[in-house]
Automatic annotation (TrEMBL):
Renumbered residue ranges of the record's region Disordered: 129-155
Natural source organism: Gouania willdenowi
Location relative to the cell: Nucleus
Protein name (Swiss-Prot/TrEMBL): Dr1-associated corepressor-like
InterPro entries cross-referenced by the UniProt entry: CBFA_NFYB_domain, Histone-fold, Transcr_DNA_Rep_Reg
UniProt keyword annotation of Nucleus present: yes
UniProt keyword terms in alphabetical order: Nucleus
Length: 155
């Protein structure tokens, strides 16, 4: 159908990809499928890069992906070696703005203790206990002795 707009299941906008491609003088006309295919190829490439970088960060026992992890991934994996120049520039620049914003998020991080999962029956009992309480100012502890209203390391 002419004039019928199609939606493609891609993460990157084909319209934006087409605009970027048309900025190049050598690129002429292209069919509608080209930006969609490039979008899918870009998604697959980035997914593989992030998975390999994640594996590098896991091997270093790190919880955060960093530029150093990505650099190590680019240097060790043959398909990504064309990115070595870009990685060198990223390491040299050291975007101070991003670091200052990131530090705001990291300072507010709380410690979380890992407990065994609460069984369904225990959750139902806790809900009944909470619903049956009329007065909030009375003793506010659950059946395990933990405070219900103040943060605790044991929760």
């Amino acid at each position: 159908m002419p004039g019928h707009k199609r939606k493609y299941p891609v993460r990157f906008s084909p319209k934006r990809i087409k605009k970027m491609m048309q900025k190049d003088i050598e690129v002429g006309r292209m069919s509608m499928a080209v930006p969609v295919i490039i979008s899918q190829a870009l998604e697959i490439f980035l997914k593989s890069l992030l998975i390999k970088t994640f594996l590098v960060s896991q091997s270093k026992l790190s919880n955060t992906l960093s530029v150093a992890h990505m650099k190590q991934c680019v240097e060790s994996e043959k398909p990504f070696q064309f990115l070595t120049d870009v990685m060198e520039q990223a390491l040299c620049q050291g975007d101070g703005r991003a670091m200052s914003i990131w530090s705001l998020y990291r300072n507010n991080r709380r410690e979380v203790c890992v407990q065994e999962p609460v069984e369904r029956e225990q959750r139902m009992e806790l809900k009944k206990m909470l619903n049956s309480r009329d007065d909030v100012s009375s003793s506010s502890c659950d059946k395990f002795g933990h405070s219900l209203f103040s943060p605790s390391k044991h929760r």
